[in-house]
Amino acid sequence: xxxxxxxxxxxxxxxxxxxxxxxxxxxxxxxxxxxxxxxxxxxxxxxxxxxxxxxxxxxxxxxxxxxxxxxxxxxxxxxxxxxxxxxxxxxxxxxxxxxxxxxxxxxxxxxxxxxxxxxxxxxxxxxxxxxxxxxxxxxxxxxxxxxxxxxxxxxxxxxxxxxxxxxxxxxxxxxxxxxxxxxxxxxxxxxxxxxxxxxxxxxxxxxxxxxxxxxxxxxxxxxxxxxxxxxx
Length: 232
Description:
This protein is 85% helix and 0% strand. By secondary structure, the chain is mostly helical. The chain crosses the membrane at residues 38-59, 139-168, 188-211.
């Protein structure tokens, strides 16, 4: 009987220890984002700089375009009302009080009144081109970033592979310690380059769409302005 108890006790102890290990919470294997970025090495510096630049351009251009959009319908209604009354000075003052690309276009046309309509139209179009160029400022940089960020990430991939083979050649061994560090560089830089490229690519096309909508409104308003001049 005593022999049987001696056999049961160790078995029970093993069962309890196994259950305790199974019940214990898993170790936290998550890695902070900063640590991951640091693993990418020096190649992460230009990628982080490009990401900051992309976000800055997207935010700055969005608010610039939004402020420039204004309310073209209400503005043109005010211009029409003043022009019907023959209040040219009031129309110029109304444009000066409205800091928008459309107002600057119309003001240029008002200052050319007395010249042939074709020349007025040309002046308005020239101002419109300048205003559109201002709205598109720095948007092309996003297109450049969208192209070069993944390429810089690919350079990091090559550096990571070189580090792997260098470690293997130096230690004459092939194992996790020799591969892990190079894989960190390879994967982190590739992922970061793609993410930065996607952000810049989306921002470029999104802002381009906003500018196109703005151009469409400005063209319609310019046509309306020329109609007002012809009617008066």
